[in-house]
């Protein structure tokens, strides 16, 4: 029992570490949206490798727990949730990388688009921070509340796309698809945070829940 507890604690610590690193990636995205900086944008891209390595480490810990330690049902749910949450965080890190790649190519992005993107990132980062805290505390009540924050991200995305299509600036219209794709990275990241909340609910209660 002591051995499985040690493995589970180390796995949880790695999930929290991974979550905090992903938060830092998106915080850096907010910075470069306000002040473009190719060096910082490249750092965001390179950070994605560290996130990938952490996911692999968590998966290895999960395999060890499953293969050698014969966890009971509640511990088994913790292992399964850890694997799934690590996968969600890896995807969220990818979205930060995608935005950084976009910024390298589009340094002269319209100021209104930057502001909307920063607002979406701010909402998203708060949502992810809450989800990591929710996981740490095994807080089912918070797991049901956090997905509501995603609605504001979706609202901002709709407003931005509407404003872009209304404007007549040739530079904006020329890149409308790329701008939309960049912003959708943030919207999709929010969806993955909702998934994290689903995994927390499963981990604690053994119930599957779909926030859509």
TrEMBL record:
It is found in: Cytoplasm. Keywords: Cytoplasm, Phosphate transport, Transport. Signal peptide: none annotated. Plays a role in the regulation of phosphate uptake. Residues 15-100, 119-200 form the PhoU domain. This is Phosphate-specific transport system accessory protein PhoU. GO terms for cellular component: cytoplasm.
């Amino acid at each position: 029992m002591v051995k499985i507890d040690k493995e589970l604690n180390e796995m949880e610590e790695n999930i929290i570490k991974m979550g905090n690193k992903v938060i830092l990636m998106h915080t850096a995205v907010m910075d470069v949206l306000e002040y473009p900086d190719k060096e910082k944008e490249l750092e965001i891209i390179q950070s994605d490798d560290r996130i990938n390595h952490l996911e692999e480490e968590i998966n290895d810990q999960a395999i060890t727990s499953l293969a050698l330690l014969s966890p009971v049902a509640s511990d088994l749910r913790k292992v399964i949730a850890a694997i799934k949450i690590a996968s969600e965080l890896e995807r969220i890190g990818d979205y930060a990388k995608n935005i950084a790649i976009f910024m390298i190519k589009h340094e002269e992005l319209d100021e209104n688009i930057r502001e909307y993107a920063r607002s979406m990132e701010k909402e998203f980062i708060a949502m992810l921070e809450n989800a990591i805290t929710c996981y740490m505390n095994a807080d089912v009540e918070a797991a049901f509340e956090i997905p509501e924050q995603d609605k504001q991200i979706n609202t901002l995305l709709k407003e931005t796309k509407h404003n872009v299509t209304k404007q007549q600036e040739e530079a904006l219209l020329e890149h409308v698809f790329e701008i939309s794709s960049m912003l959708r990275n943030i919207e999709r990241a929010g969806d993955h945070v909702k998934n994290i909340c689903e995994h927390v609910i499963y981990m604690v209660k053994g119930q599957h829940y779909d926030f859509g």
